[in-house]
Amino acid sequence: MLKIGIILGSTRPGRVSPQVGDWLKEIADVRENASFEIVDIADYKLPFFGDPDTDDQIGKWKSTLSSLDGFIFVTPEYNHSITGVLKNALDSARDEWNNKAAGIISYGSTGGARAAEHLRGILGELHVADVKTHPTFSLFTDFENYSTFKPAALHLNNINLLLDQVLAWSGALKTVRT
């Protein structure tokens, strides 16, 4: 059985990524060919490069990543890119990302499209194969008062396509790693 991590890409107070991640997990948990877990970067307290070394936190992060066959990133768009904490989390591991698949779900004023495009380039460097389907959520239409996630029903089709693709690619790439 494949194990997929839903990585929450924000740690800011008042963030909405947990709402999006929980919604995705509810949909994904119906599937019988994989298990899904929320991986909240905030739980790891990763140091930034140059901070005093905290091998235990980085070790815990790498161990979590190693246990997963694929990823779905839930990322907001901040200043036309991904968050600093997500970039730091990506940079805090290397081999643990290699030869795995990922999907991207983004949100923001333009659906987080620019953040997703930046994330795709980073994932390529880490040898992560990102899938084509990319659900985007608008702060204007999919969030009530910009803070309560209320996705339109039309997104369900893209979410299921994303899940199909992530599972297919994760299964294929698992054969490369073993």
What does this structure look like?
Helix content is 38%, strand content 22%. It is an alpha/beta fold. The protein has one domain (2-177): Flavodoxin domain (Rossmann fold), CATH 3.40.50.360. Strands 1, 2, 3, 4, 5 and 6 form a 6-stranded parallel β-sheet that branches. The two termini are 14 Å apart. The model has no long low-confidence stretch (mean pLDDT 95).
CATH top level label: Alpha Beta
Number of helices: 5
Rg is 15 Å
The fraction of residues assigned to DSSP E strands is 15-25%
- Unreliable sequence segments: none
| Overall strand count | 8
CATH architecture identity? 3-Layer(aba) Sandwich
CATH fold assignment: Rossmann fold
Mean of residue pLDDT values: 95
Cα shape: globular
* Alpha-beta classification: alpha/beta
Terminal residue distance: 14 Å
Number of folding domains? Answer: 1
Give the CATH superfamily: Flavodoxin domain
Helix content: 25-40%
The topology string of helices and strands comes to EHEHEHEHEEEEH
- Mind describing the biggest β-sheet? 6 strands, parallel
Task: For the structure shown, list the relevant keywords.
178 residues, alpha/beta, Rossmann fold, 6-stranded parallel sheet, two-stranded antiparallel sheet, 38% helix, 22% strand
Q: What's the topology here?
A:
Blueprint: E1 2-8, H1 17-28, E2 34-40, H2 55-66, E3 70-76, H3 84-91, E4 100-108, H4 113-125, E5 128-130, E6 136-138, E7 143-144, E8 148-149, H5 155-177
